[in-house]
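quick one before i forget lol
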Amino acid sequence: MDLRYLGFAALMVVAGLSGGEAQAQDQGGVYVEAFGGASALRETNVRGAVAGRASFGTGPVVGGALGYDGEDLWFRPEIEFAYRSGDASAFAGGARGDFASTSVMLNAHYDFDMDRLGAFTPFVGVGFGYVTEIDFDIKGGVAPGAYNDTGGVAYQAMAGANYAATDRITLSGELRYFDAGSRTLARSATSRITADYQTFEFILGARYRF
């Protein structure tokens, strides 16, 4: 893992804190967020020890984030951890499997200032980060087993809206696209598969600002 990614993420959050405690009460502050929703993995051609076209049912995506929301920055920086998963329907001679990943992402959101929407604030965002683990647990077929990989970069794009429930609690809904690229996963030194990992997601979140 290239620690420069996480180091840069930490610097982004620290930069958000530079507005000082005096501004935190009126203009925003550090927040924590929990989120969850539905993740739909795109179909992919599995190649290698197991070969076939795999399609997936809708699975879960859950995670948490630490960020900063303040008027002294034009964007909202955030460090996020997420887990997502999807079950593959029968492919490659009756094989089935669970394709899952965990990731650490540095996100930047832009919140639109639209007073006519009241407590609602639309936003767009992008993220760049590191896949801490990705695995495809295959059952049945010609080469069942746990195929996994670690490392590699990923990116994501999101759009949605925040709702200010109170001065400190914000609810959100968003659509997200997550892409970890084409991955080579190994069960052993001689047994490998290659598959693409991209998801479309609907996510609900709850944020608490300190």
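fyi The longest strand covers residues 120-139.
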